[in-house]
Amino acid sequence: MDGSKVRSLSGGVNQSGLRDHNERLLLSMLQRNGPMPGSDLARLARLSPQTISVILRKLENDGLLERQAPVRGKVGKPSVPMALAPDGVFSLGVNIGRRSAKIVLMDFVGNVRAETSTSFRYPLPAEIFSFLKRGFEELSSVLSPDLRERICGVGVAAPFELWNWHEMVGASAEEFSLWKGVSFQEEIAEFFDMPVHVVNDATAACRAEHIYGRGKEFRDYAYFFVAAFVGGGIVLNHSVFEGHQGNAGSLGSLRSVGPNGESRQLIDIASIHLLEARLVEVGLDPKGLWASDDWSPYERYVEPWIRQTAQELAKAALSTCAVIDFEAIIIDGGLPSDVKKTLVERTRRYLLNQDIRGLIPPQIEAGDMGRKAREIGAACGPIWSQFLLKSNAGLSDPS
After folding, report:
1. 3-class secondary structure, 376
2. Which of 118, 189, 238, 307 has the most CB atoms at less than 10 Å from its CB?
3. What DSSP designation does 259 have?
4. Nearest CA-CA partner of 134 in 150, 148, 117, 151
5. DSSP string covering 335-366, please?
6. Do residues 334 and 371 make contact, with C-beta atoms less than 8 angstroms apart?
């Protein structure tokens, strides 16, 4: 094989025909590490300073990069860090949930510029696509005409096989059969001429955490997102792993043994819908679980829910580590920060009481992204596919 054509993921190539890779590489380094001068980029990318200079100039002219204030050292000319330009690219991110749908307009550095939402008894195609059409128009109008041209696409985070959701949301199988054969790409193409990326909702949350949250700290970890229905994702070698059919990290399907020896899935014993059902059972309105970050009015019922959920997450954490030697487990979700903190602390405590023979217990850490993780992770899809490297391996400074 011609050695000049061999490249590693963490290094660049100086052949002009592959410059698109080099542009993505530099953009990914800046996204991952923050502002950096060309000299540091050249060292990390293993490209010549001349090549780096040409690429940076082009990306700046294209509006994707902007210069930061010069940094003066002890010797020589001051260095000029380059950074992603927030207005360089925009993306729309959609999250379709059990009782509501949300859309965010996100910029190149992950800031949410605008958002809109709707609620419903349960999600059905006609209502969802009507909301998306209105929402895309509303959020696009927030930008000036020239910036509107920089919207690169739409990301949709939704549970796979929505037609199987009917029992979970209290709908009939006939109503939810309307989702069978529905293509988000085809439906959205009817009213919005942009690339559409569809991802499992929990995987989208994992992606957001990995790009903008605590995930940057770890190479390999499992991620649990505790929402109406618990889900998850996995990260291997600094990259979110989606699997052959996009369903890797389906942690809500992990099995657990009930008190009477019955087999149950994690989604049935560690999800917020269980707390909601308990509140309804005792005559309390559960709307505050979704609309407020203050769960103190439900404290009497939140405490036993945390206890059970933490026990099950501790078991699930070890089950995932039995397959892959994860260094960490990150727990996030649609939870108030104080509830999430308690849930993480309890999970750590219960982990110590588990049978860990043959296993190395992982760190248990709280995620940063919270309720907006799924729509932000969805919005990352179009940006990632068009401007950044899919894998993050080698994008951090090895020193």
Report:
1. helix
2. 238
3. T
4. 117
5. --HHHHHHHHHHHHHHHHTS--TT--PPEEEE
6. yes
Q: How confident is the model at residue 171 (pLDDT cuts 50, 70, 90)?
A: low
Q: How high is the pLDDT of residue 163?
A: 66
Our measurement of the distance from residue 196's CA atom to the centroid of its chain's CA atoms, rounded to an integer in Å, reads 16
Structure token pair of residue 74: 């002890």
How far apart CA 124 and CA 133 sit, in angstroms, is 15
Residue 387's SS3 state is: helix
How, if at all, do strands 90-96 and 100-107 pair?
A: antiparallel
Coil, strand or helix at 38: helix
pLDDT digits (tens, 9 = 90+) for 332-341: 999 999 999 9
The C-alpha atoms of residue 158 and residue 101 are separated, in whole angstroms, by: 10
Helix spans in the chain (H)? 19-33, 38-45, 49-61, 125-140, 145-148, 166-169, 173-176, 184-189, 201-212, 272-281, 288-291, 299-323, 337-352, 373-387
Phi, psi at 226, each rounded to 5°? -90, 110
Q: Spell out the long-range contacts of 133-141 with Cβ–Cβ below 8 A and sequence spacing 24 or more.
A: 133/191, 133/192, 135/94, 135/103, 136/92, 136/103, 136/191, 136/192, 138/114, 139/92, 139/103, 139/104, 139/105, 139/114, 139/115, 140/92, 140/105
- Please give the residue that has the higher pLDDT: either 297 or 172: 297
Max intra-chain CA distance, the chain:
73
Query: For residue 391, what are the contacts with CB-CB under 8 A and spacing of at least 6?
Result: 9, 237, 238, 239
Model confidence at 233, pLDDT cuts 50, 70, 90, reads very high
Does residue 73 sit in helix, strand or coil? coil
